[in-house]
Specification:
8 helices, alpha+beta, 17 strands, 4-stranded antiparallel beta sheet, disordered N terminus, globular, 5-stranded antiparallel beta sheet
């Protein structure tokens, strides 16, 4: 943002960036650490906010703890090292970039640290829609119509981009919205702020058929998208014998895209613990550990009750590198794998 525009103006720009750390108490400890944000001194606005790195594990929205997509970040303060879970928020400057670019930068920053993807750079975003060698300022946002249609008082609906970065722990249909300018939350929901948990019934009022879009990133070499995998799994589940389907509720099923190394680590830990009671499941896990797998896998996690009324989890793993119209069986495991724990960092 600085190199693309501000160093080419008469602004006085310094290389130094100020980190402001936030603690939720009077002690300097990891438990009290709330995250940090970065400021850069610049003469006309005085100071510019760029990145915010919240500690999402200690933040609430209307009393609800949040489940947000995160990666592990380390910070060093006065000889102390804290490790916490964050999803970075990038703030538009209303000059170089607007809401669409800010959202893409936040998303790519998270994917870079989580999955080692390349970052999206502001310079590259500018090239993507500039005409010739000229980049117009102030930025009006990306020309492709993507986002929510938000009514502004006394004006026509304005298209705007917000990010859905998670959900509340109490309700999976109560989504965490990040709005870097606050435009949608203010004009659509009458809320002054940038992060809010919003119920689906409320959110879908703003998603209009012709001029609003839901966009989600997908990994490279994943050709079976989320909706297709979800449909494939339900077809497979419905083809099982009735006795095999009894007492299984698909309402709380989770569909995850995971690195195969994480899947094998999850299986290996369970085998080493020796917590499995059925030999056939143990043999299936050992077979999966020896099986060549694509880089990413679709994971289906189904909560079930055992004879002691304790919750356990059935897992199906699928190969996402087939075409979405393939007639082949995409599932890797021959029988469902049973675990006492959920897969991944998030739980509900």
């Amino acid at each position: 943002m600085i190199s693309v525009h501000y160093i080419n103006t008469s602004y006085e720009v310094k290389n130094a960036v100020i980190r402001v750390h936030v603690f939720l108490g009077k002690e300097m400890s990891q438990q009290a650490y709330g995250g940090f944000f970065t400021l850069r001194k610049i003469d006309e606005p005085g100071i510019m906010l760029s990145y915010i790195y919240p500690n999402w594990s200690v933040l609430y929205s209307n009393g609800s703890l949040l489940n947000v997509m995160t990666y592990k970040k380390k910070v060093h303060i006065l000889g102390n090292e804290f490790t916490y879970s964050t999803y970075p928020l990038f703030v538009q400057d209303n000059n170089t970039i607007a809401c669409a670019e800010a959202s893409m930068i936040s998303m790519s920053q998270n994917l870079h640290h989580k999955f080692d993807y390349n970052k999206i750079r502001i310079l590259d975003l500018g090239k993507a829609y500039s005409s010739g060698k000229t980049k117009l300022y102030p930025a009006s946002g990306l020309p492709v119509i993507l986002g929510l249609s938000v009514p502004e008082k006394g004006k026509k609906d304005k298209l705007h981009i917000v990010q859905v970065i998670g959900h509340t722990k109490q309700d999976r249909m109560h989504y965490v919205i990040y709005d870097d300018s606050g435009f949608f939350l203010k004009n659509g929901l009458n809320y002054n702020g940038f992060v809010l948990g919003v119920g689906w019934e409320e959110l879908k009022k703003f998603i209009k058929t012709k001029n609003s879009f839901l966009i989600y990133p997908i990994h490279e070499k994943v050709y079976i998208p989320y909706e297709t995998f979800k449909s494939r799994f339900r077809d497979t589940f419905n083809s099982l014998k009735r006795m095999e389907r009894e007492n299984i509720n698909l309402e709380n099923v989770r569909y995850l895209l995971a690195d195969n190394r994480e899947v094998k680590k999850f299986l290996r830990e369970d085998v080493e613990k020796g917590s499995l009671t059925e030999a056939i499941v143990l043999e299936e896990e050992k077979r999966l550990l020896e099986t060549d797998m694509p880089h990413y896998l679709w994971v289906c996690e189904i909560p079930v009750k055992n004879v002691s009324e304790e919750t356990e989890y059935l897992f199906f793993f699928a190969n996402p590198t087939y075409s979405r119209v393939t007639m082949k069986n995409i599932f890797i495991n021959k029988i469902p794998v049973l675990h006492k724990e959920q897969f991944g960092l998030l739980s509900y």
